[in-house]
Amino acid sequence: MKNFFSNLFGRNNDPKSIVSFDVMDALYSHLYYVESQFEFEMKNVHNAVSVNLFTFPTSFDGYEETQKELEKNGFKNSYEVLNELYKKINIDPITPDKIEQELEFDYLHIQFYTKPPERIKKEMKYIFHNFYIFFCCTNSLETNDFRIMYKFGHFFDYIKGILEAEFIDINTPKNDIQEIGFNEFKTILQGICQYVNIEIPEGVELPSQENLLVDEEVTAETFEEFINLVSRGNADDKLVKKQSKKLLKNFKKGPDNYPESIEAHWGIFDSVDCWNSDWKFDPEDAEYFISEMIGQDLNFAYPEETYSHNLFPYIQSALEKLDLELMTYDTHGDNYLFFVANKSDVGRILALSELTKIEVNQL
């Protein structure tokens, strides 16, 4: 049951934006009547997009773990949390008589990853974005509007995490992380609509004209294509086929087979000209090892006292003249596993990376 209260502010009524009440309300209806949560894969999005419907108080009160979080954060029940959130987003508080009636108040939680801004690529491979959508009434007794709260990063205390989220205007990001997340949120919404067959209203300016869903089946040939691209066609055909069969077998076992999968991923790069480096390296090392990888001398200009990841722009500039790009396999450690790809293949390599769960990154 939806119950919302009036506020004094204008509606989110841009008819050209996909971040609109009509789209949010259609998504809410799907979550309420069909499935209260789902995950799905989108092209060029790291890991699955997660969409959930949560309800005050039933999603919180009565669960031992959540009750501990409520008490730890100084609340007796989740209605008190909801009123704190409503205070932030300019929605009238829930009155005691409504609480006594144990009315339910729903909101949406959408989560996804993006690449980080350039300035923090060394510290973070991906940014985890959380968007919370609360419905309300604007100059109406009927639900006709919504408010968005936002927080980036993972959190282990859900109550604390949502309380730390901020009220945002999707069109006015305050920093580069928000700018990336807010822009991608529009594409994510389009992907959600495509996944659950929500009809997007006419006149909405779509963020993308492409099919956003992953519709390729992963086969041995998928892994063969990946290895051939990251090796620039220089891997032994018999070894490629052998490795691809092993990779497919591990892939079908799912995430529980993580150690074996990682071992198989490293096996790929045994057959590829690559450079396994500590996170700290000198420009002379880069010139030597990249020259070895591409089979010709590579020299690049760089400012004095420039090392490690600060060298990437200068390396890439030199490689770009050869239609090449330096990339890395994500080791999840404090080292790089570099390889060189044809510039024209980078987009496909990243798409196959998402498809096969072999994590490679641009630098």
TrEMBL record:
The UniProt record lists the DUF7821 domain at 23-199
Q: Where is the DUF6630 domain?
A: 223-360
Pfam families per the record? Answer: DUF6630 (PF20335), DUF7821 (PF25134)
Question: Could you tell me which InterPro entries the record lists for this protein?
Answer: DUF6630, DUF7821
Q: Specify the protein name.
A: DUF1963 domain-containing protein
